[in-house]
Design the sequence.
């Protein structure tokens, strides 16, 4: 039989354990950790002899103290050390969170991202929070402040656009979608439901030869519609659920739940890699899915 003293020791130990876990999830993992997630694959239809290293950064969510301009610069320095042939940015540069001490202006986070370097360049798409936090774009359409900030530092943004690149004389395509959740519903916007601005068919129609295609799509939910013509889809958005136990997350911002929450998924011979991202949204918490840079070696 447990004694009164033993009971209080047990309760105290439990509370201390919960507080320690909370401190880790709130302060250490989102602020201090940075992992490298590595994948190696040769997708169906990939050009023989084409060796390509892609470095991907997703879901930066710039804000103080969680993702300062200085921290973004340090992450970019680490990304450069990975010696990718090309670097991609998968959207959500805007904060997406109210629990901040200070917002990081788009001119600051874009200046930090401008330190990224790769022989075949840096290529970007937008995410839902980049649209949601721009009231002017919500009301009138057009470019968001994120589009303009990246353009100002020379980083091209793909909004339903495909571009052909080459390495060692062998071509491949980047096809980048505009965001699938871009426009919020609401009376003030004159919309009764959320609208996406993505155009998968129109983007793929710009591909004019049989070189492999890498699709950049912020949300992975489009993957069931992605044709076999696409060698690899790269996405972010989910943050791996931000809290992850034994390979699953209790909450994933996807209509498919854990199906596309994180990592390399193969369905019917088609490949998607979903980054766990770098920042946080809604709440500054991560547990079991630390911030990460993704490195993909193709071929």
Sequence:
């Amino acid at each position: 039989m447990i004694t009164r003293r033993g009971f209080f020791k047990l309760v105290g130990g439990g509370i201390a354990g919960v507080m320690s876990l909370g401190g880790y999830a709130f302060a250490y993992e989102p602020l201090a950790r940075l992992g490298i997630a590595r994948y190696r694959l040769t997708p169906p239809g990939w050009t023989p002899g084409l060796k390509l290293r892609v470095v991907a950064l997703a879901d930066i969510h710039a804000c103080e103290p969680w993702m300062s301009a200085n921290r973004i610069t340090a992450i970019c320095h680490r990304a450069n050390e990975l010696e990718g042939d090309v670097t991609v940015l998968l959207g959500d540069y805007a904060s997406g969170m109210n629990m901040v001490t200070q917002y990081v202006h788009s001119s600051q986070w874009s200046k930090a991202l401008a330190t990224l370097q790769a022989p075949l360049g840096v290529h970007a798409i937008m995410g839902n929070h980049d649209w949601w936090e721009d009231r002017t774009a919500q009301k009138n359409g057009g470019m968001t402040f994120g589009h303009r900030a990246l353009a100002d530092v020379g980083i091209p943004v793909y909004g339903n656009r495909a571009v052909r690149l080459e390495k060692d004389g062998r071509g491949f395509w980047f096809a980048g979608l505009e965001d699938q959740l871009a426009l919020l519903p609401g009376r003030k916007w004159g919309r009764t439901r959320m609208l996406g601005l993505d155009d998968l068919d129109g983007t793929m129609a710009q591909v004019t030869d049989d070189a492999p295609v890498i699709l950049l799509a912020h949300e992975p939910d489009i993957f069931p519609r992605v044709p076999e013509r696409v060698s690899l889809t790269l996405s972010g958005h989910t943050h791996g659920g931000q809290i992850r136990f034994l390979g699953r997350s209790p909450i994933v911002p996807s209509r498919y739940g854990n199906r596309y929450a994180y990592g390399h998924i193969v369905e019917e011979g088609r490949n998607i890699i979903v980054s766990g991202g770098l920042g946080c949204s809604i709440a500054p918490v991560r547990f079991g899915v630390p911030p990460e840079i993704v490195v993909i070696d193709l071929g």
